[in-house]
Amino acid sequence: MWNDQFLNPEFFWLLLLLPVLAFWMWYTQNRKKPELKFPGAVQISASSHNRLAYARYLPDLLRLAAITLVIFGLARPRSSEENSRTKSSEGIDIVMAVDVSASMLAKDLRPNRLEATKTVASEFIQDRPDDRIGVVVYAGESYTQTPLTTDHKVLLNSLQGIKYGLIQDGTAIGMGLATAVNRLKDSKAKGKVIILLTDGENNSGEIDPLTATQLAESFNIRTYTIGVGTKGTAPTPAAYDFSGNIIYRNLPVNIDEELLQEIADQTGGRYFRATNNNKLKEIYNEIDQLEKTKLEELKFYSYDEKFDHYILLAFGLFALELLLRYTLLKSFI
After folding, report:
1. Is there a single domain that holds both residue 39 and residue 108?
2. Beta bridge partners of 78
3. 223: which of 25, 58, 235, 310 is 20 to 30 A away, CA to CA?
4. How many other CB atoms are there within 10 angstroms of residue 139's CB atom?
5. Which among 95, 43, 103 has a CA at the least distance from the CA of 219?
């Protein structure tokens, strides 16, 4: 009872009538009580106030309790349970454009640049459950690995399937960026973001990177660019031996940072340089903080009406009162 809410508490004013009703019951009860006094009958009178002496008041007490329950029922008691869920009030669509050229197999990141990128990108996806995310891969050409989706399980499986050798080698940054723009241009999301990762210089493709940048800018797509690789030299694939195994040589790391900076500046994003695994993870965490999805908490309540509980109990007390009044306690009333 004490945890219930009462929708019509004004009915509780009726409780003020209960003392008046109780007095009236007591008064009428004593008025109709027969009295027969005998001199010297003190012991007999005292014995009349034994365990059954007050039993005649029990039906009236039951009636008062029943009336009280009816009043509580009229006040419309109900219990409530609060539930809540969150939804994205300002969603963000994100496309990750990942370089899969041969140089991404360089071992300056562990176990190599491509695998390190896949690991960190997977963590980034898992930390953004409310966003649609897609993946574009590019080397000498580009294609969509996974279109925008909220099914992150499918997305993660698709990401793990990325590997070197599926498309022509090269580094077509303009093609990768243009393909990512194409996935986002019709998006209705409040925020549209591209994360473009590369470890080299644009050396192939039919679309110039700055032309693709202008496309991104025209569709209000922010682009974060990441240059992956140590500064100096790194163990990089250089050739294949007779068994088909990759031969690694320490080769210069050439990243067109000026181009990546221009792409980021022109679209309102930022340029980052990842020289090791930890730095790459920090970059994705920073982008995660820069592009926070706004969440809205929705609260809803479920109600359980308790009116019938009180009324049924009141009828039970009324029935018990009538049973006692006209059967067991009839001789005391």
Report:
1. no
2. 5, 305
3. 235
4. 27
5. 95
